[in-house]
Design brief:
The structure is a single chain. This protein is of the alpha/beta class. It has helices spanning 35-45, 74-79, 93-103, 117-120, 125-131, 156-162, 165-168, 183-205, 219-226, 229-236, 271-280, 295-299, 302-314, 318-328, 338-343, 345-349, 391-398, 403-411; strands at 26-29, 49-54, 68-69, 72-73, 83-87, 108-111, 136-141, 213-217, 254-257, 263-266, 332-334, 353-358, 362-367.
Length: 416
């Protein structure tokens, strides 16, 4: 087996003299499914040493999500990259004791148990802060740690429904529409990584280097992404409705079918772009109309503008549409599927998708680190590993447990 701590071939490798910005920090990922694991993945991508805690028998449910190849979850390879994995039961006293020993060394804990679960196991924030006052505890739940819904089961689908996203998504005469992917979880995971970094920054400025608890719900990041609809309702009494791909803020804004059967998306958020589009499609006369001077005015004439733009695009191939829009300085993009993403020259050249080495599957493509940093870049050092692959090394080499004791704990299924 190759060295799991070495940067993966084809990743955004970190020069030896310039480790990631979180190098030297230890993150314990005790979360499951998507939001928490994504938060920990991002911290690991930028240098943190991440130890993934999984149930010794069941493991993280993410291992069963998505497509597999030769029995290996392809999503797991990405979401658990840069993480060492330890199989450990937290619900039994000996497992909880080992967990506390690990927490004593950690900087960040990411967890998403239902509120009260860690407390029931003697692992709540008060107990963990007695063990390690500087610990940052990122707690991810559906609805937060307090309030009437705190005890409810929380999944991304529920947040997508309650945030206003589903209400505003879909055709005006159709039902509310849920996303086909983990939107709420993904936004929450990204937001949680930012919150963890803020809490670490606050710890550095605290003379006592105290950690804190981050209470992160799946609901709030998506509510922010949906926009100011609560403010609009509060001030104007308006409840916005579904309107398909159109925008209430500008037009033309839609997807349009080309002559060779592809879809392209057009946006005209800026006034100058709207003017360029209408000149390009042969209708400069509408630019002088009073209503054309504002996004809201154009949105009120979306049928007219969509007809003009759609007719022009329908007479041309996707390649020709993109070529002419680009030459005119207008905003257009093809609607991509996964094959298009992988084959796109810009995505490949900028390494938004990168090839990494995997012990089980050989070279495979995955998303690169999410943002570029000039002095302390992130890296993909290794891909997701088998359940419990690092239990022995962490418990024996780092926590000082006797190998014979680890063997007994394995027989009891306290560790894996």
């Amino acid at each position: 087996m190759s060295d799991p701590t070495a940067p993966a071939e084809g990743s955004a490798e970190v020069p030896a003299a310039e480790p990631g910005p979180l190098h030297g920090l230890l993150v314990v990922d005790a979360s499951t499914i998507l939001a928490g694991p994504l938060c920990a993945q991002l911290l690991g991508d930028y240098g943190a040493d991440v130890i993934k805690i999984e149930h010794p028998v069941a493991g993280d449910g993410m291992r069963g999500h998505g497509h597999t190849k030769d029995g290996h979850s392809l999503w797991w390879k990405e979401i658990s990259r840069n993480k060492r994995t330890v199989g450990l039961s937290l619900s039994v006293p000996r497992g909880a004791k080992i967990f506390r020993s690990l927490i004593a060394r950690a900087d960040v804990l990411v967890e998403n148990f239902r509120p009260g679960t860690l407390e029931r196991w003697g692992l709540g924030p008060e107990e963990l802060h007695r063990v390690n006052p500087g610990l940052v505890i990122v707690r991810i739940t559906g609805f937060g740690q307090t309030g009437p819904y705190a005890g409810r089961a929380g999944f991304g689908t529920l947040a997508e429904a309650m945030s206003g996203f589903a209400h505003l998504t879909g055709a005006g005469d159709g039902p509310p529409t849920l996303p086909a992917f983990g939107l709420a979880d993904s936004l929450c995971g990204i937001a949680a990584s930012s919150a963890a970094a803020m809490a670490l920054f606050a710890r550095e400025r605290d003379p006592h280097r105290r950690g804190q608890v981050v209470d992160m719900s799946l609901l709030e990041p998506l509510m922010a992404a949906v926009g100011p609809s609560p403010t609009v309702y509060d001030q104007l009494g308006l409840v916005e409705r579904r309107h398909g791909n159109r925008s209430t803020n500008n037009a033309p804004r839609n997807t349009y079918l080309t002559s060779d059967g592809h879809w392209v998306a057009v946006s005209t958020s800026a006034q100058v772009i709207a003017e360029r589009v209408l000149r390009l499609v042969g209708h400069p006369e509408v630019i002088g109309e009073p209503w054309f001077a504002s996004g809201g005015g154009r949105a009120a004439h979306a049928d007219l503008l969509d007809g003009m733009v759609g007719e022009w695009i329908a007479a041309r191939t996707r390649g020709k549409v993109i070529e002419e829009f680009t030459a005119a300085g207008a905003a257009v993009a093809p609607v991509y599927d996964a094959r298009d993403i992988v084959e796109d020259e810009h995505i490949r050249e900028t390494r938004m998708i990168t090839e990494v080495a995997d012990d089980d599957l050989g070279p495979l493509l995955m998303h690169n680190v999410m943002w570029r940093m000039s002095r302390s870049p992130g890296s993909i050092r290794f891909t997701g590993r088998p359940l419990g692959a690092d239990t022995e090394s962490v418990l024996v080499d780092e926590l000082g447990l006797d190998p014979a004791e680890v063997a007994r704990l394995r027989e009891e299924r306290t560790v894996a």
